[in-house]
């Protein structure tokens, strides 16, 4: 007897989001009426050319930047309009971050960097969970090393472990393989894929790399601050082909909104 797949809930949602920078003739509209949802337990990539708004969208979704109009929600919490103290608590409790720059503290060991956010929050680490992440990332024999004693790939794996240490509702990854060689990048992407498949983690990743996007379940394409395509089950070839026709996608999106 077949068993129905569990219905995925929404981990992150944006509704009618606008964001602009500057004033008057110098104003740049980074996001134009963007509405999108990201399912829990799924790996979604956000792609687009430089200046498309992909990083701005991620920053608004993660509460790192404010919206001019529209709303953003994480789980059951609407983060739009929250004060600084409430936003800080939400980011600490519900969100993990992985950046292109590893952002590790040089005076701390790998293990101390991994557990630092929990220590700052005064939260007790789950030793079994931390051990599982460390084992999955093959960092067991690197825990006493400081960042300068680690390769770039190892540093980013430490950053990945830090992002998952608190079991966040969603992990936002901004070009996580941008500073890595091909092999190290593949190790990080394989871990992100594993964290979704085995741990039920939700990942939202900004990338410009079609090969990185191919690890995701879905790719959302942005251009000129608008979503112009939403692709399920991406492959590198499908993503490359889509990006070759970006001008057509933008023209179609503009025509629909005219």
3D architecture notes:
The chain has nine helices and ten strands. With 258 residues, the chain is of the alpha/beta class. It has a single domain, classed as 3-Layer(aba) Sandwich (Rossmann fold), CATH 3.40.50.300. The strands form two sheets. The chain has a six-stranded mixed beta sheet with strand order 6-7-8-3-9-10, with helices on both faces. Strands 2-1-4-5 form a four-stranded antiparallel beta sheet, with helices on one face. Strand 9 (218-223) and strand 10 form a beta hairpin. The protein is globular.
In short:
The protein is α/β, with parallel strands linked by helices and 258 residues long. The protein has helices spanning 54-61, 84-94, 110-121, 127-136, 152-164, 182-197, 210-213, 236-244, 246-257, and strands at residues 10-21, 28-39, 43-47, 69-74, 77-78, 95-99, 170-174, 203-206, 218-223, 226-232.
What order do the helices and strands come in, and which of them pair?
Layout: E1 10-21, E2 28-39, E3 43-47, H1 54-61, E4 69-74, E5 77-78, H2 84-94, E6 95-99, H3 110-121, H4 127-136, H5 152-164, E7 170-174, H6 182-197, E8 203-206, H7 210-213, E9 218-223, E10 226-232, H8 236-244, H9 246-257
Parallel strand pairs: 3-8, 3-9, 6-7, 7-8
Antiparallel strand pairs: 1-2, 1-4, 4-5, 9-10
Helix pairs in contact: 3-5, 5-6
């Amino acid at each position: 007897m077949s068993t129905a797949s569990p219905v995925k809930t929404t981990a992150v949602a944006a509704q009618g989001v606008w964001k602009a920078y500057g004033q008057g003739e110098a104003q740049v509209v980074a996001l134009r009426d963007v509405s999108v949802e990201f399912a829990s337990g799924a790996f979604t990539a956000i792609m687009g050319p430089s200046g498309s708004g992909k990083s701005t969208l991620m920053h608004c979704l993660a509460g790192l930047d404010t919206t001019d109009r529209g709303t953003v929600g994480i789980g059951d919490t609407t983060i739009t309009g929250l004060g600084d103290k409430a936003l800080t608590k939400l980011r600490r409790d519900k969100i993990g971050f992985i950046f292109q720059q590893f952002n590790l503290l040089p005076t701390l060991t790998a293990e101390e960097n991994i557990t630092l956010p929990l220590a700052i929050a005064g939260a007790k680490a789950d030793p079994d969970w931390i051990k599982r992440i460390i084992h999955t990332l093959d960092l067991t024999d690197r825990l006493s090393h400081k960042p300068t004693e680690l390769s770039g790939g190892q540093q980013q794996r430490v950053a990945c472990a830090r992002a998952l240490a608190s079991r966040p509702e969603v992990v936002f990854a901004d070009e996580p393989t941008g500073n890595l060689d091909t092999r190290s990048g593949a190790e990080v992407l394989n871990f992100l894929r594993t964290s979704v498949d085995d741990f039920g983690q939700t990942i939202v990743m900004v990338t410009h790399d079609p090969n990185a996007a191919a690890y995701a379940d879905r790719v959302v394409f942005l251009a000129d601050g608008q979503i112009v395509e939403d692709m399920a089950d991406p492959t590198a070839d499908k993503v490359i082909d889509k990006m070759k026709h970006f001008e057509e996608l933008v023209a179609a999106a503009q025509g629909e909104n005219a």
